[in-house]
Amino acid sequence: MANKRIKDISTASTAFASDDFVITDSATSGTRKMTKDNLISQVSAGVSGDYLEESNNLSDVASKDTSKLNLEVPDIGLQANQVPLSGMLNSGAWLDFDSFYETGAWTPTVSFGGGSTGIAYSTQEGYYTRMGDTVYINCFFVLTSKGTDTGTFRLLGLPFTPRSTAAGQQGLHVPYAANLAGLTSVPTAFVQTNASEVFLYDWDAAGATSSLKDYNFTDATQLRFSGTYQIA
């Protein structure tokens, strides 16, 4: 990679200085010397060096822009935006940020006994953030009519299907509930196993629970809940 040939170096005709380097020239069976100045004086000057490539490593490319492109780090995973979990290439374990983290909206929908005839809303809002297999959700809805169907209340539309759990349910927090009828306590929300729906329960004084039904709702019920659950 040198820019000058050995034969161009001064012959060792005088005593060597402490910063001279001995060079053997096999073509003439002679000995030459390379000075410290020969070796490094031009290396950092932004031009081609005497015996070393210039220090910016751009002397062998067409332009600096080309060199910058050559130095760009490409995607190193199996897909875009992936990095190895172990910090090493070819580790076999990759973290895909696109699938690991996600945010979005979902639409909460009320059902009674599996039906939704005549149900109307003034507000239906739902948002989520997913981190791996854990989903944080929040929801707010306001009814203007509870419709004509009867039976157990269900809230549908969860963005991801919950996983199976030993208890069969995953709890959520209910910070606000208004215009609910016939309850003995603040309702508790649970995500049902392997079903994208939420059930509400009322805890009585003895600690027993009963699922909320159509008669617990009015045409002006408002409900907000939030929490996390594990997905399938």
Structure description:
Helices cover 7% and strands 42% of the residues. By secondary structure, the protein is mostly beta strands. It folds into two domains: 6-71, no CATH class; 106-230. The strands form three sheets. Strands 5, 6, 7, 8, 9, 10, 11, 12, 13 and 14 form a ten-stranded antiparallel sheet that branches. Strands 1-2 form a two-stranded antiparallel sheet. The protein has a two-stranded antiparallel ribbon with strand order 3-4. The two termini are 59 Å apart. The model is unreliable at 42-55 (pLDDT under 50).
Features:
mainly beta, 2 domains, 10-stranded antiparallel β-sheet, 3 helices, 232 residues
Summary, kept brief:
The chain has 232 residues and is mainly beta. It has two domains: 66 residues, no CATH class; 125 residues. Helices cover 7% and strands 42% of the residues.
The total strand number stands at 14
* Mean pLDDT metric: 76
How would you spell out the order of helices and strands?
EEHHEEHEEEEEEEEEE
Distance between the termini: 59 Å
Tally of helical runs: 3
Radius of gyration: 37 Å
Low-pLDDT residue intervals, each spanning 5 or more residues: 42-55
Write the layout of secondary structure elements.
Layout: E1 20-25, E2 30-35, H1 36-40, H2 64-71, E3 82-84, E4 94-96, H3 97-100, E5 101-105, E6 109-112, E7 119-131, E8 134-146, E9 153-156, E10 169-180, E11 188-192, E12 197-203, E13 209-211, E14 217-230
Antiparallel strand pairs: 1-2, 3-4, 5-7, 6-9, 7-8, 8-14, 9-12, 10-11, 10-14, 11-12, 12-13
